[in-house]
Input
Amino acid sequence: MVVDLEQYKNLRKTIKFHKILNIQIILCYRACNDMKQPTSLKLTVIILIMFHLLTLNLLLGNHCMAKHENILHVDDDGEAEYSSIQEALKHAQHGDTVFVHNGTYFENLTVNKPITLLGEDKKTTTIVNNETTQVVHVISDFVNIKGFTITSNVQSTQHIIGVKIASNNTRVTDCIIMNNSGDGIVITSLSSNNVIQGNIIINNMECGVSAAYINHTKIEGNQIINNRVGVSLCSSFYNRITENAIVNYTEHGVKMCGSSNHNLIYLNDIANRQIQAFDLHENIWYNQTLQRGNYWGDYNGIDANGDGVGDTPYNIYGGGNQDIYPLTKPVVSKNFSWTKHEDREVQPISNNSLKKVCILVFYNPVCDSCLKTLGYINSLNKRYNLGIVAYNVLTQEGLELQQRYFTAFKVPKEKRGMFSLFIGNKCFTSEEEVFSDLEHEIHGYMSTGCDCPEAGGNNDAAVVFSTLDASHIAASGLMNGVNPCVFATFVFFIAYLGFSKINRKITMATGFLFAAAVFLTYLLIELGFFQPFYLIPGVPLVSHLIYVSAALFALLAAFLNLLGYIDMRKQRSVIYKPRWFFRRKEGCFVGFSTSGKILVVLPILSFLTGFLLSLLRFSCTNQVHLLTIMYVAMAVPVLKNQAVLYLLLYNTVFILPLLVLTV
Output
């Protein structure tokens, strides 16, 4: 490329400056030499000369590199050197610009070089999907894409993405990304430092912008309209979402999923009839310096002083996050064309006008995550007309019915766990699936409604049971043997007794009785002996309180014993109580005299603790095969003996880590 006049003048000035500087350095060196200066000074001057020449070469080299920059023209009318964008990309070199003239190009592009892809006019320069799952795929760093309409066949059965970015330092600006059967823009593959700016991302069947495992990316100044989800970030950190109009979505405006944390979201207009935002993690929904948050379509707080910021925070759905500076008027959308059309105005709707959607849930009442998921499902009932039917899987009725639904829905045996949810023709087998996909599934039935799914009359639990063998059962038991609910308490018992120098027989008896309690309690639960207990109201709450109390007690005891160890005296009590806490009384509620008869009580106390903890925390095993074996043991007489043997094997291997620690 020919250097223009201004570049030529700048280049001459640079050369002239370096020429003068070179002469000065040479004169300085000659002066030093004539004056017989020390060798160190001469060496310094030589180093300066070398550094200067290196700098000169770099600067001149940059100008020389500029000569390799090129503009490749593409025109589908055949009036340019290329009629295909991909062909131009193939011949482009690093740093080149591929300029695409107005036209419609039926191509799928792979950008694997650091180039600029520039369209003549975003409204009249269109790239249409040809055959692959993304219209434009960027796999090179330092790529700029600007000035295109990027689209696919929205009726396609494939999940077609408009732009997929698997690179760093990529910019997508001033484009229209529309009518894709998948997401508008996807950013993935641990990408960072990308910019999505000034685009219209509209009418895509899935997310406007979807990102996973990214960081330090800016999504700003975009119109994100009529997508299922506006912006979705999963397992992403330190990104910024600002000055976007995110409207007319069908599920969420901004959704933080996975373990997304430390993202900054502010000065956006987020408005529609559904959930504006969803966030279970630690993200910031305002700018503290500006003291400005976002405009929310359903915010109903007041602005008493008229500063444009609501006087009460806006609660972000899903967790405890808040926008503490919610805006009372749109800050971005007033500049965008969609607000001028009355048919795009957001109007709240009543769930009484929606068709009823039946949801069938099977859950464990002692499982914290199950109860949290039930709470989420109940919260959806405030916005949709749901019929929620729930069954306790720790009852024989619940177990049997769940097995029948597993059969009817052909749920793989490895996914059959404590929790399951059935809606229409779909089954969710994990709480994570419910939080991420259930609401989208409900939307599919809003206009037609959905009856409770049929379970059918047959049960293949026996068939699934026949596929299990002893090795699978043993492996499952061993994997779940390190059960945090029981393991922590057991380790505390044994560690304390060993540290206290209590005789080995007492320590062994304590450990074995604790393990025996776990074994016996789990077996009785699995055989259905404690079904009435789990039907008592308040058991889940009591379970949680006891679990938390035990953890706090263990921490407190460990802390006090540490203080006692530091303050230990030469007395018969090996672990002495901190003087400031117990007023110098001997003995300790977590330390006994080695000659005291009270040590006999320790094994009994250990057994009772193991029994109670196992009874209340049975759900911690969460073994997917366990429910099938439990059901067969209680409801299939011909296989009952084999099922009981499997339960004995499972529980024996389950307590094996406890026995190893005891010995």
